[in-house]
Amino acid sequence: MENASVPVVLMAFFISWVGCWIPLAAISAVFLHWEPSKPLQPEQKLPLLVSLYLLAPLVLWGVIYLYKRSFANYGLIVNLSLLKGLGLGFSVGLFSLSLMFLAQLWLGWCNFEKSNLKLLPSILLPILLVALLVGGIEELVFRGFLLTELERDYPLWLAAVISSSIFALLHLVWEQQETTPQIPGLWLMGMMLVMARIADKGSLGIAWGLHTALVWTIASIDTAQLITYTGKVSVWYTGKYNKPLAGVAGIICVVGTALILWWMSQTI
């Protein structure tokens, strides 16, 4: 089945992934007392998210076995180079987000709540572990599997556009109201992460590290409530619902990071 068409391979993966997860989600929903008519709370979302993401590598391994692919084709080769890329991407992500928040503090768009720093020691490691899982699985699925398979039929730029669109739209599964304003930003983030893979010569290391840094930093800030917005400017500048990707500042951060990655692709 090595010559199976791209749509067949993609459908086989996503249908199998969701199909295997639905029974687990149903069982989890009972124990979590989740009602579909009500929005998911963070403590309910996390177990569902983790179970979904833990299934992905297993399902992908099945697709790889069935259709004669390999994890190496998708940019995942566990070696020192991957770890170096992971560290580099993480550093770039922290640098970009630090500049974004420092600029907003300097402009008076937000305040830094120093009193909440005491909350960080207890949350940093758990959030980092979740961020590593989420970042790693999403990069393997979207910038690894999906992008690579689409490249079999389309040029890189079109494969990047399609995979980034799917990446952005699938975030609506978890929450619609707060996610909808982030769709353009999520699409740009997907394109930026494609550039990260290009900068890493096809490896997922930099993209994984960058994605992890973004999830870890934003989730830590939100959980500890380290940043409060002053209302000095419209939420469309800082991010609607306090989501950076739903505002001008977050978009500039993503574009700036993409430019850094483009420069890296020319020099590494």
Task: Supply the key terms.
mainly alpha, 268 residues, globular, 2% strand, 2 domains, 2 strands, two-stranded antiparallel ribbon, single chain, 9 helices
Strand line-up across the major sheet = 1-2
Elements, N to C (H/E): HHHEHHHHEHH
Rg computed from alpha carbons, rounded to a whole number of angstroms:
19 Å
State which percent range the strand residues make up: under 5%
Share of helix, binned? over 70%
Low-confidence stretches: none
Number of strands: 2
Mean pLDDT: 92
- Our measurement of the CA-to-CA distance between the termini, rounded to an integer number of angstroms, reads 37 Å
Largest sheet: 2 strands, antiparallel
Provide the domain count.
2
The DSSP helix count reads 9
Structural class: mainly alpha
Overall geometry comes to globular
Would you give an account of this structure?
The protein is mainly α and 268 residues long. The protein has two domains: 69 residues, no CATH class; 191 residues, no CATH class. The protein is 71% helix and 2% strand. The protein is built from nine helices and two strands; from the N terminus they run αααβααααβαα. Helix 4 runs antiparallel to helix 7 and helix 6 runs parallel beside helix 9.
Topology record:
Blueprint lengths: L5 H27 L9 H26 L12 H28 L2 E3 L7 H32 L4 H15 L12 H17 L5 H20 L2 E3 L5 H4 L9 H20 L1
Antiparallel strand pairs: 1-2
Helix pairs in contact: 1-2, 2-4, 3-7, 3-9, 4-5, 4-6, 4-7, 5-6, 6-7, 6-9
Quick take:
This protein has helices at 6-32, 42-67, 80-107, 120-151, 156-170, 183-199, 205-224, 235-238, 248-267; strands at 110-112, 227-229.
